[in-house]
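tool_log.txt
---
The assistant was asked to compare two proteins side by side. It first ran the structure predictor on the initial sequence, then on the second. Raw inputs and outputs are pasted verbatim so the downstream comparison step can read them without reformatting.
(1)
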Amino acid sequence: MPKQPQSFRCVHCHEEVSTSALGTQHRNHCPLCLWSRHVDIEPGDRASDCLASMEPIAIAVRKDGEWLLIHRCNGCGTLSSNRVAGDDNPLLLVRIAVKPLAQPPFPLDRLAQI
């Protein structure tokens, strides 16, 4: 397996990103904007031919409380999860986590009718 580069340029915000971070061994998302590139089929294998940008769309939480960042590929539609890294932007993580509450799929005034 080829050696992983020390850094990469973010596909979304174009910042230079170090591949080493607390909490992850296979970084492929930007800690600033949380976008990724579709590089893996399995975590760390770098075997995907797609290489399209991946938008951060949701947060999932494991049984142990660890947060996962959910990405959707803008090329092929694949969904993938990535462990949240220690240097990920906390404000953007919280924005993504509360988005379903801030933008419910129904008018909030319907809650008063229940």
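(2)
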Amino acid sequence: MRERWFGATGRRVPAIALEGTIDLSGALVLDDASDLAAIDGAHHAGTPVVVRCGSAEEIQAALSLGSVACALVSDETLLELDLAEMTYG
């Protein structure tokens, strides 16, 4: 399981997590990764950024942003994505 830093908290979290399985206290939780100003602002402030995703493409887009700590999913099958394969073929 790939992990990423959870903002400036010193915690590491799964890159892709099932909704309700990790503590999101203090995080900026977004429904998509389109608000780049909010994402960058939160990241620069040390606030963890989490994006809810419903598809493999949304996960790839969210995690391609280094400022995003975690992609949250509600479909367990999305936890098994091979991001390296999706990115590099």
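---
observation on (2): The chain has one domain: 3-88. The first strand starts at residue 3 and ends at 5.
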